[in-house]
């Protein structure tokens, strides 16, 4: 299934070294001004070549819309778009054609689809596909803005370097002030140093992204299987290299007592229902309660390391493998807009569904 | 959406204090012998009243099938079933009718659906709904057994008490030897003591469940959004009280280097492709690679604690609340069959889908 | 797929000679008063034993709701219901167990599912399943009433006996005045005579049902594949014995010229946009235009005739077959509430979807 | 919903006067040789400008594939494609911008989506969208060919001129011998004359297409709502201008007796189960029985007639309207490949689903 969502639904297509990556958004409400600059900015945050700690590939990733927009606004028809693939160097991959690179999808895809895989640049399972998600997510954000809902993500951990302060103590408007997309400047600096060191070793490193969805109305999410948290996990865990998802206190909740973890309701001075703590991450019984939704995603280290490794080829012979090409030592700074995108499409989908049932 | 799955799809219905909990399984292949004893055993593992550390409610939870089975085998028609609700004590809930109990779904449901919520025993958002999942999962397991696929879960953490050994060093056939469903007997004993202590304090505690899907064929999972890991996260995070999901090294991968994390392919003496480590948790690029799939789920502590708490009622007045009734101090031992069930339905769904595309 | 619909979605289960027929409605908005008498009346219109021209089976078909209703109103949770099967005489079917009865589903099901078919009374492919549709449709009608939308069907043809007047010249409140459910009393009388004659010959006869959906708001239907007409055709053609569907002028439009067929827009005295004719049947480019939606369904004659026929059995031997049991000489009078039901679920589904996208 | 299908699923996008019409096919099995010439031939059969009785617009409709094909074969990844729009004359539409053209979708779309409709050449609701269906259908046909399944459609009626012989007496290999796509040459000649006469009058005329799916294996279709006939009706009725669908004896079955209509099973000399007649159109109880599936579609006359008509504009003023541009006097010859396409995608979808459940 190369589609995601129920009422706000998008489909992506394209391979890393094919002519384009693209997508189709189905279910964007009509009459939404499509701010192409905003969409392009989100794409720019994802593309390689932004700084010295991400891949040096030069993909300028210009989105081109093919349908569904008229006079600068959505029409209700499907919004198709493409992003041309440039600066591909397929020759870097020719020698890996028959290899099962360690911890890549080569073997799993070979077993699923047989011989005719487009192996160039990891083909369909390349993270390049995520550029389509960013476009679909940015359009969703344009709709969500009408409802005052905003989505912000940042890098909260690289290797052992962590942001220790909770998001509520950070200035999320600073996320793009450094190439790490970490709003704590001092921590960002340490992360930067760590990644450079890792890169110099030809190695890679994992990390986490934290994301906050603010001003979500209460009542989003659909019992019993389409809990807001469940669909969010589905959306987020579909991102390349994602290995874990948690919301609210997440795995830390496993160590807590009910008397600590319970969020107590109270009334604000201006008559709003709020909870004193928000360990539930804005979701109770799977439904949003009006508090911030926040969650963490763990990303594994990139599999392409510049060292010789032993593996098998399609003939099941043991072979040596040393990659060529240009790869990220750490993906998390570039994952930030992707996480935002998947959070946006999930939130908008639930918003639309919820409106349907309100008589 | 009270349904889950694409080709193996089930729908659940019923409220905690309604006449029944039930479900409909659509897409069970024909001619599968339906081993009702096996299904009932899985249900028995979920029900309360099994030991001194779970709720004392006496629900005998007998499943009754209404359709789709003929001569003891599935016919291909939908398999409907009900489980009667007994030993309900709705009077325990009458006084909470208008309350938003802390960290329960009362407020979120009220905001979503309005006044006419069946509040008794948490109605639809009660964990009692999970008995329907267990039945649907047990039927899925009966199909998976034909393919040699087995699914085993166990309690890996309660509060700060953890199983430190990896699952590969445990005997998973021992899971039911103690009420904790923890295959490490010494750790189980400590967990047991912790829960009793917590229970005596009228408090509750969180925990984690670890689950292993063994003998999964390579090639399961559907790119790009229906990665095996993504649908598994969706399934698992739809379980009540789930707060986090991770597979393979999960959140620990965020601290690892590529050179540590990469799983190297090799050929076994009998010609099987395997990886030397399995930090990927059997899933690469979202597709199974033939190694064990394993994952962890974090559960928050139960919200019902036997202490006075302050909260709001439907009239937005601040009120005191002390629960009555019988509740679990820790849900994880009873969550084990539920986790297995959701893993089973996800695996079977992908198995069926994959068969469709193999020409 | 034993489910139908996107946002208003129902699932049916049960076999003709199993303990129950039942269903689950998912997506009924909350706070709808559930008028059980109305639902039961629709069921009563479908059941056999109503008159001398339908099957003499005595099924009293009492619906029993299991969930999703609290204080007489929907809660937003799934509404499950069962109808007990009574007066089954499975012995009538024992001798047909191994036969492929002509024009029944026996052979097709055998080829699809293998030996373990519940053959008794046609099992799953019995028209008894339609009682679940009638319940789901009646609940949908309760929601549609809030929007002033009404749905009325009637028998418009039996064999060669046809209602020649258009529906606009008939009094649809008279539909239930005769057992034919034909609002033209004189035509109804001729139909009645024809069916009695057919019945005396041990034969059966086909017919058509016409249905009108009134007061549909403009804008329902979802381009491009979910045209109102396309989903309506899908819903209607899923009814047992349906062989044709047409809306507006239908097949007659194939003989018309554009200059005859075009519906010209005009403004009514009270400022409403209407068309002078309604040959489009209220649907243009797949979307409702505010005029009545009307359509016809053709039903084939019942396959069970009380004559000896030659056929094959599961061993592919040629055998003689003469049915026993009680069967309808003509199904169309009983099909009326089923057609209304499928029209209702389709209309409500589109109504909900359309609301989702209106910002 | 601009997508159709479950396991073989396609999405279309694009407007009549936008840069492209395009689509994405998701779920094409891997390793299918993609015969682009075959696909292009089907497209050529749909395009205008083929003869003197269809629109003189010159759209050369070259399909360009963007993804999912490698070394000439499908990879299992989504197959995206575009067809550039050329020879558009948007100026023909400028004067109709604010008009509700009679029996077009202008008013219904305006009520659904508001002001920002791409009205040029009917935008999204132009029949130009069907070129995407033809591509998706042609790819499906390439897969179906592996299973020996073939799909052939022809024009069976234009106005009152009908093919009286059943399809079994026609040579369907002759369909493209005349511009009518009618395999009965004499009837084709009369149809041709009728259309020319209609065209000279500035008028249009309806017609029907008959389609045969041969060599369908028994067992396709999914009870209870996804009957083969129901999904086929859904697919076919989603085609622009379709007004009716019938299979087997269709509406004629309403006039038949069971003793006439029943198809009797027998064994062929080479041990095949067949029916003596095939009034069921190869579908019994919604499931294919191995006989030919055949069906008819009724198309209304094209709404654009070259005569002055009265209508309303967006300000609800009464105005005169006379179209410009180039339009078909009769769409049915060009509808033939579209009907084949929708039949192909439906059949393939069921074939894949059926394979999933065969253990």
Quick overview of this protein structure:
4 copies of one chain form a homotetramer. Chain A has 359 residues and is an alpha+beta fold.
Descriptive notes:
- 4 copies of one chain form a homotetramer.
- By secondary structure, chain A is of the alpha+beta class.
- Chain A has a single domain, classed as 4-Layer Sandwich (Chorismate synthase, AroC fold), CATH 3.60.150.
- The first copy, chain A, is built from 8 helices and 18 strands.
- In chain A, the strands form 6 sheets. Chain A has a 5-stranded antiparallel beta sheet with strand order 1-2-3-7-4, with helices on one face. In chain A, strands 9-8-10-16-11 form a 5-stranded antiparallel beta sheet. The first copy, chain A, has a two-stranded antiparallel sheet with strand order 5-6.
- In chain A, a hairpin with a 2-residue loop joins strand 5 and strand 6.
- In chain A, helix 1 packs across helix 8.
- The longest helix of chain A has 26 residues.
- The model of chain A has no long low-confidence stretch (mean pLDDT 95).
- Chains in contact: A-B, A-C, A-D, B-C, B-D, C-D.
- At the A-B interface, strand 1, helix 3, helix 6, strand 11 and helix 7 of A face strand 1, helix 3, helix 6, strand 11 and helix 7 of B.
- Strand 11 of chain C pairs antiparallel with strand 11 of chain D, so a sheet runs across the interface.
